[in-house]
Amino acid sequence: MKRKLAVLGLCLVAAGCTADQWERFPGPDDVIALVPWFVTMHRGIAIQPYKWPIPRMPVEGTVPVTGNEPVLRVTPANLPAIDALRNPVERTARSIERGHDRYDIFCLPCHGAGGAGDGPVNEKLLVTPSLLTQRARDLTDGYLYTYIRHGGAIMPAYGARIFGEDRWHVVNYVRLLQGAAQ
To answer: What's the Cα-to-Cα distance from 128 to each of 31, 98, 103, 111, 152, rounded to whole Å?
Structure first.
C-alpha cells in the first residue's frame, strides 16, 4: 500500500509540473553548483574542454614535456624552415644503433629492412616509396625528421610514437642505409 501511495504521489508531482519546470529539473550541474568553489570552476571563463573542437596550442616560449621542437608540418610554405633544421644528433655508433632499433619497430614494416620500400606491408599496398632513390637522398635531414613527425601523403604521423631525439637517430640510420646502397 505504501508503495502504491509513493508512486501515486510521484505521478501527481510530475503531472503538476509545467513543461518549463520539467525541462529545468535539477541535474548534476545544479548539484555541483551548490558547492561555492565549483560554481566558479564550472562557469568560469576558461575554455570548456569538451566544447572546444581543436586542442589549444602551447603558449609561445613554453617547453613541452618532450622538449622544445618546432611545430612545422610539411607544407610548401614551411619548406624553407624545415630545410633549415639541422640534425643536432651526431652520427655515432650509438645513434645508428638507436636509430636502427626505432627503424625496425616503426619503419621496417613498410620501407623494408634495407629501406627499398619492400616491407611486408608493402606487399599488399604497393605504394611505399624507397628511401634509397636519388630523390630521397636529396631530401634534407630536417625534411625527413618533419616527415617522420607529422607524416605525409600516405605515411601516418609517428610524432606520438617516435619521440624527439629518436627521430634524429632514425634519420641518421636512414642516411646510413642510403650510403650503404650506393
So the answer is: 56, 23, 15, 6, 12
Grid look-up 606491408 returns: 121
pLDDT in tens, 90-110: 999 999 999 999 999 999 988
The model's pTM: 0.62
Q: What is the pLDDT of residues 106-163, one digit of tens each?
A: 999 889 899 888 888 877 777 778 899 999 999 999 999 999 998 887 888 888 888 8
At 32, the amino acid letter reads I
Instruction: Give the C-alpha separation, 9 to 45, whole Å.
Output: 42
Interatomic CA distance for residues 166 and 157, integer angstroms = 14
Structural domains of the chain, ranges and CATH numbers in brackets: 76-181 (1.10.760.10)
Q: Judging by beta carbons within 10 Å of its beta carbon (0-12, 13-18, 19+), is residue 128 exposed, middle or buried?
A: buried
CB 169 within 8 A of CB 99: yes
Alpha-carbon distance of 39 to 29, in angstroms, equals 9
